[in-house]
């Protein structure tokens, strides 16, 4: 671990005479942690922290989040700065390689992404094995793991190898797989990627190009997709990234680790929330719920209803991504097309909930998922694909964490302890006495 111990904490345990000195770590931004990696060996005690709310699982230099101040940085760059001055390919490069590319390197990387954007012909037949209405995340998770069958060299990737080839293939193909799944859902032929188009232009073209009408790629949608993918690109040790690092720690290959990240992201509490937000707003609109009705449901402890797109384990103020997503949502929805009444409900919900003591006391504010779905929807992306869009964005972050774990000289296999609350030892009774 590349970290220094500056101070010590003193632990006084009920069954020990002498206090225990425990090293304290101070991180780059002044955050402090109690280093308990030797605690059980020295005291016989473990710690107990369900959901790892207070537990640091690793040291990392990829992403910094300050939940109290609403700060998000990738490799030291503020998210607002990156969204304004970079496209998704540059941010993916930054996360994976640690530095922003110069113009020459950016072109080389973009060309490599295009070169790796085709899907093996035999993999294309997989789609026909799924029902047309299969959830895209089921397909994506399966296809990611299946890539290791077609590219077995991934089993022993050495981080010292050029990561461009191995990981770029995945960053490129996840976009093709998602677009092909959409075409399969519609019962339409696949549209292959084109070397003439950028990363995001290619995605929109593979999704919506049609032989029966002139499809023009909308530049505002290209801008919006770049920014939305950047917003989703990483977020330190969130649930799915932790899953990727845990699977990496067993020595599993990149594609298998990413498949685990996709499965974790699918949950409605995590990456599935953007889909759940739209479903909540649609239900409210169809049932003509007032905003007061929705807020009352969210506050009702007897109800499992939650205000989707609100609240966050780390942010106890506005998620900086939500502010950017809201501005982008209003820009895309005001460009044309019929008015979306769900936006009115969302804006009023934000206005009222952020002034309600229940939400304020609990630090519940809009998170990244609250507005993104409305923008994806206007771009023509179906609701059940929103989490797949999140995954396309999050992939560079997952890869960066996978590589960081692989390079960690102290990388131990992840294996938490537990507090056992089951039965003490007992004998097996004969069958006729059970
Ligand atoms: C993402 O970790 C990451 O970084 C994730 C992510 C990323 O980029 O990877 O940022 C992406 O997953 C964003 C979050 C998307 N999920 C949702 O929008 C689903 C709705 N939100 C909640 O499920 C919840 O806020 C979580 C899961 C996001 C966070 O839950 P915590 O930190 O475990 O908080 P909690 O469940 O302990 O809630 C604390 C209190 C409880 O009330 P009390 O028991 O104190 O009375 O807040 C309440 C909760 O009931 N609460 C909510 C609420 N979220 C929390 N009440 C109503 N609506 C909500 N949305």
Largest sheet: 3 strands, antiparallel
Give the helices and strands as they follow along the chain. EEEHEEEHHHHHHHHHHHHHHHHH
Ligand types: s-citryldethia Coenzyme A
Our estimate of the beta-strand percent is 5-15%
How many helices? The count is 18
The gross shape turns out to be globular
| Spatial strand sequence of the major β-sheet | 1-2-3
**In angstroms, what is the radius of gyration?**
24 Å
Mean pLDDT figure: 94
The counted number of beta strands is 6
As an assembly, this protein is single chain
Query: How much helicity do the residues have?
Result: 40-55%
Class from secondary-structure proportions: mainly alpha
Distance between the termini: 52 Å
Low-confidence stretches: none
Give the tags.
binds s-citryldethia Coenzyme A; mainly alpha; 434 residues; 18 helices; three-stranded antiparallel sheet
Short description:
The chain has 434 residues and is mainly α.
Describe the structure.
It is a single chain. With 434 residues, the protein is mainly α. It contains 18 helices and six strands. The protein has helices spanning 39-43, 79-85, 88-97, 103-115, 121-124, 136-150, 163-186, 199-208, 219-231, 239-249, 254-265, 273-286, 291-299, 320-333, 341-353, 357-361, 369-378, 386-407, and strands at residues 5-11, 20-26, 32-34, 63-66, 71-74, 77-78. The chain has a three-stranded antiparallel beta sheet with strand order 1-2-3, with no helix packed on it. Strands 4-5-6 form a three-stranded antiparallel beta sheet. The protein is globular and about 80 Å long. The termini are far apart. It binds s-citryldethia Coenzyme A. Residues 235, 238, 269-270, 273, 298, 306-314, 362, 364, 367-369 line the site of s-citryldethia Coenzyme A.
